[in-house]
Amino acid sequence: xxxxxxxxxxxxxxxxxxxxxxxxxxxxxxxxxxxxxxxxxxxxxxxxxxxxxxxxxxxxxxxxxxxxxxxxxxxxxxxxxxxxxxxxxxxxxxxxxxxxxxxxxxxxxxxxxxxxxxxxxxxxxxxxxxxxxxxxxxxxxxxxxxxxxxxxxxxxxxxxxxxxxxxxxxxxxxxxxxxxxxxxxxxxxxxxxxxxxxxxxxxxxxxxxxxxxxxxxxxxxxxxxxxxxxxxxxxxxxxxxxxxxxxxxxxxxxxxxxxxxxxxxxxxxxxxxxxxxxxxxxxxxxxxxxxxxxxxxxxxxxxxxxxxxxxxxxxxxxxxxxxxxxxxxxxxxx
Length: 334
Description:
It is rod-shaped and about 155 Å long. The protein has 3 domains: 2-68 and 89-139, no CATH class; 147-216, Carboxypeptidase-like, regulatory domain (Immunoglobulin-like); 219-332, no CATH class. The strands form 6 sheets. Strands 2, 3, 4, 5 and 6 form a 5-stranded antiparallel beta sheet that branches. The longest helix is centred in the first third of the chain and has 37 residues, at 2-38. By secondary structure, the protein is of the alpha+beta class. The chain starts with a helix and ends with a strand. It has 5 helices and 21 strands. Helix 2 (42-54) runs antiparallel to helix 3. The protein has helices at residues 2-38, 42-54, 58-65, 80-86, 219-236, and strands at residues 67-68, 90-95, 99-102, 105-114, 117-131, 135-140, 143-144, 147-152, 157-160, 163-166, 171-175, 180-187, 191-200, 210-213, 216-217, 264-269, 275-278, 281-284, 287-298, 305-323, 326-332.
């Protein structure tokens, strides 16, 4: 009987060890699966890339994405504050499960919101190696970065994502990472434009990613130009003649004036200032207003003296020049 008991004990012990070994193998397989998915998997590569964007680490992001910069594109948005600002409004990020297209390639969708709008970016990755026999190594499929083109009417600079950048001939293309939101603004003492923004979700967005800044005159410029024109017209009004020299208004005819009469002009309606862009310049639209002349005239037959008053509408143009914060206005009356 002791032999039977001894055999049963041995069998139980073997069964226990077999169960333990099975659990160890299952645990090992599960561990390999989890490590392969969460450490070496394609989702992890995408997560690292997105974190690099949030940290403003453009070099790391570019290396992970294996992307090239388009020829001639300005790299100002690829690092530092400009890059971090692109991710400020990218919220509610959810990295989806990888979807296989074949044994070597997967697509990882990323859903997120920008200013409340839900967008999706899909990243393509490929298996490039196996580490330690068990773990797959994934990398982004090499690509070219998209660009965002910023332009401003009659300007040579702007602010993009908080960074002041040059716009040669009023326009420049910037290489950008995706996803991200890029905004541009423009403001000087004399010109400004409403901020514009665009969300870039894929590398194919270049054709539609335009930041067009519609610059327009500021109130300061309108006031300064108005002041200069008022000074010019007021000086014209000081001339004691019916045909003020270099001025847009006059009183036709040559009435006989009383011996003590003086000719007095008064501007009763000053021009409304309108400035617009035309052929890469800022121009003043045609100007108009009203002036009144007063004097005393005498009847050469009767000798009677009577008031002279006439109201004249006037029109003229003026050449505007704004350069380095200086404004000049040159009236053209001929």
